[in-house]
Amino acid sequence: MQQVADEAGVSRTTVSFVLNNTPNVNISAATRARVWQAVANLNYARTFAARSLATGRSQTVAFILRQVPDELLVNGFLGGLLSGVTQAISADNYRLLFEAVGHDASAGAYTELVRTQRVDGLIISGPVVDDTELRDLHRESVPIVVNGKPDFEELYSVDVDNVASARTAVQHLIDLGHRRIAHITNGPLNYTASSDRLEGYRQALLNAGLPCEDRYIQINPTFTDQGGYEAMRHLLDLPERPTAVFAASDVVAFGAIRAIQEAGLHIPADISIVGFDDIPLASYLAPGLTTIHIPVVQLGVRAGEMLMQLIQGDPPVPHRVLLETRLVIRHSTAPLRES
Amino acid sequence: MQQVADEAGVSRTTVSFVLNNTPNVNISAATRARVWQAVANLNYARTFAARSLATGRSQTVAFILRQVPDELLVNGFLGGLLSGVTQAISADNYRLLFEAVGHDASAGAYTELVRTQRVDGLIISGPVVDDTELRDLHRESVPIVVNGKPDFEELYSVDVDNVASARTAVQHLIDLGHRRIAHITNGPLNYTASSDRLEGYRQALLNAGLPCEDRYIQINPTFTDQGGYEAMRHLLDLPERPTAVFAASDVVAFGAIRAIQEAGLHIPADISIVGFDDIPLASYLAPGLTTIHIPVVQLGVRAGEMLMQLIQGDPPVPHRVLLETRLVIRHSTAPLRES
DNA sequence: GCGCGTTACTAAACCGCGTTACTTTTCACT
DNA sequence: AGTGAAAAGTAACGCGGTTTAGTAACGCGC
To answer: Would you call B73 and A261 a contact, using CB atoms and an 8 Å cutoff?
Structure first.
């Protein structure tokens, strides 16, 4: 920096002011130009660590993905989320640190990032319930935004309305005349996305005056297509086979579809199926999957924006943002065939 | 740190030695324990920026994805790659900075990360040809590993053998008796993955003594399913329709399949199709897509490992690692039907 | 021609927080 | 008394941010 100052014929202070565009300082346009020219001539760039040390900011946010490697492979959302978050934070010249953490929430997996001041805030995708680590950090006023339903009220979050969306999906099946409607969860029930979608399924059935039977509810513990496959196998073995299935994620639906087709049944003639997520490739499945569309990129953008506001000490209102979903009707659902 | 030293009744120097587990220093087990206890009592964590400033290392590598947001959405590889890289670098306690850069290679998009010492090395996924920025950085001995074919020889890289793999895919079609085999590229030809797969297609045809006709080669400029769809439409309009298609990516194949099915034709009865990539959901397409399987996670792991070696001043041999692919035969290919 | 307030800087010092090389002390053991 | 291990202590970095005090030139009004 001293060299730049010498080259431009100014002081180090002036160089710092120019580079930071510090407000309330008077520096002539000519001098500013000389400084920038010197910076260019010397190919100078300020060391990130030094700036960070001096300012107390890391200009970095962590994107914490609570998934194990296996799940990561079939995560159709990742690209969209990352893209959205990156867009939102790049405006403030922030960068993104990617971190995948398993479900076991081992001690301080991401707390360290905050405590060493490596990141200024956290975006957490898919937290488990009872995440005490998260609660403690929030109590210490660490900027945190959750993608999904937060564990406790005060946490900032961006999500879709899983209950309402699931209700819409199931209502669609009811409207088509189906009565024996099964449900396969997208993951274990300690994940709120899973339990909320199950709740939406229940509500839709009850609203329609239909029974909600445990035998038609399959808890898939894995988030994977394989889990959907196995769950569907169980459903197909029931004496009174369901005529429609609400699979709480597209990936799970893919597994279920395979099971159905392997059993020699046809979609939607024999069984209708609705997914959830509308991952980019859902429309290429034959038959095209009817599903709930989630605005993935927007989820990322809003989360990024909220986090930046928190970091800048300007708490966003409201705490919890719910983005709209919509039912995309393709060809995996059809009216109940009287038999 | 001084407080920790006081609490443990030792000097700051000793605390540093203990925390770093510095070799060639003699510190008794009892003292080490006292230091750790003090760290725990005070809930102390060293500031990342200060360490980075003192050591000259950022313990961070950048993962640079050369894709625009739209492409990101349909990138089935991202999860696997990130997972692999993260695994490989976490052993050395490194973290990953995610950065998406478009194709226009605007000035210094990632050079800044290096020059400000924000990262110690770069992993670049899908570079364009003629990336002078990359060349300059490599000349300055910046640790760089490319996922894909590098622009110039000396660059370190991990890739699959696109030429050979494409040859295998096309050979499979030839073995099934097909003669009119079309090709849809996965992207523009300035991407080496695209031009190499085209080259493999050419070689397979030539080896078999078959003509290689331009009309059967469709350059898809977008990397997307939509591009595959449009390319296939052109192929279907040809007077002598191809009986088989080699689509250079699964996503492109999905688009092509839609075009084929919309035209009222059947796969594989009327047209066989082979993809490339074997993205996790490729098997769920009906009919299951025959494709070239790429070991995605391994690509990430090897890239991460090589980069860590470079950072530690231990240049990996060889420069260029080619991972094996394999043909996965599902149900989108069948013997040529005599007609 | 004087006084006064701006404007446009400079100089110097301190700060943030560990790392690391080098010197010195303490103390147990032979 | 001599030796080596186990530390303590000191101080110099690394690099930019920020503040304080001060200087010099300039314009303006009267």
So the answer is: no
